Amino acid sequence: MYVLRDILTQAQVKRTAIGHFNVADLVLLKAVFASAQELKVAVLIGASDGERQFMGVRQIAALVRSLREEFDFPIFLNADHTHSLVKAVEAAKAGFDAIVFDASALPYEDNVRQTKEAVEVLKTINPSILVEGEIGDIGSGSEIHETAPDLSQGLTTPQEAEEFVESTGVDILAPAVGNMHGMLKSMLQGEMRKRLDIQRIAHIKKAASVPLTLHGGSGTDDEDLRKAIAAGINIVHINTELRVAWRTGVENGLSKQPHEIAPYKILSSAIESVRQVVSSRLRLFKGDGAVGSDATNRIVAPPGRS
Ligand SMILES: [Zn+2]
Predict the structure, then answer these.
(1) pLDDT-derived band of residue 295, with 50, 70 and 90 as boundaries?
(2) Centre of ligand 1 from the C-alpha of residue 81, in Å
(3) CA 255 – ligand 1 centroid, Å
(4) Is 295 exposed, middle or buried (0-12, 13-18, 19+ CB in 10 A)?
(5) pLDDT: which is higher, 27 or 297
(6) Over the stretch 82-139, which tens digit does the pLDDT of each residue have?
């Protein structure tokens, strides 16, 4: 059986990134899994608080586990942006592989104290669970925003990153490095792309040495993503781009078959539309077409796997 910690260690060593895609239904999950299977790369499924409530915490855990077991495939589940210990414990008990404990909206000292406590509690429930902590401001909501928020004051510093990892014991760190949740209207048409502070990522990586997650990856410049991964990002979150593709796919499915009422026939175009977005992102994360593109995060079977 595959273990997320091993997959993440491989990504650290090879300087590649694992794609993290949020799901809110079976359409999204099927699309992400089909794409990861096709490209033979490990993948992380994300479910935020709202997404977990919609699908059921134990139900999404059972779905992802069933795919991992039936297909002997490295697909894992992350409880994205969990703001309370109660919700984090609920996800850990349901069998999630990782938890993003997000107290980044609190003052720094409170963030440290609460995250440290969460790490201790969650590891007693499942010693192999991975806990991610977050510092800095990357906005909120995987939605389409009218205007860009000013996040410049909330960028993470290398010193802060080092101190936070040291004092909380988190396995993974999510820094603020120019990334932002959601997308702007201008990004939908591709007129504008998000840009990242690559130098800052490299300095944070050196200081903190743990795997780094880039939240709010949707709408980011491709070349910046490649450079960010080379500089030390190991997990990239994509949500808004999938939501846009989901909606477009559902609308196409309905308009192309105005008399159809079988949901699986209508929704097949949504699966296809999401799958295309996931595949293009996964190709980029595993290094296709980039310099040194043989340094991929292709699946390597763990020793002694049955
Ligand atoms: Zn996020």
Answers:
(1) very low
(2) 6
(3) 32
(4) middle
(5) 27
(6) 999 999 999 999 999 999 999 999 999 999 999 999 999 999 999 999 999 999 888 8
Please tell me the total number of residues recorded for the chain in this structure: 306
Flag whether pLDDT at 304 surpasses 60. no
> How far away, in angstroms, is 82 Cα from ligand 1 center?
10
Q: CA distances (Å), 57 to each of 67, 77, 90, 259, in order?
A: 16, 11, 8, 35
237 Cα–ligand 1 center, Å: 7
DSSP state, 178?
Answer: S
Ligand 1 is an ion; residues with CB less than 5 A from it: 215
Written as one string, the DSSP assignment of 36-91 is HHHHTB-EEEEE-HHHHHHH-HHHHHHHHHHHHHHHT--EEEEEEEE-SHHHHHHH
Q: Contact 198/227 with Cβ under 8 angstroms?
A: yes
The Cα–Cα gap between 306 and 302 comes to 10
- Per the model's pLDDT, the better-predicted residue between 291 and 70 turns out to be 70
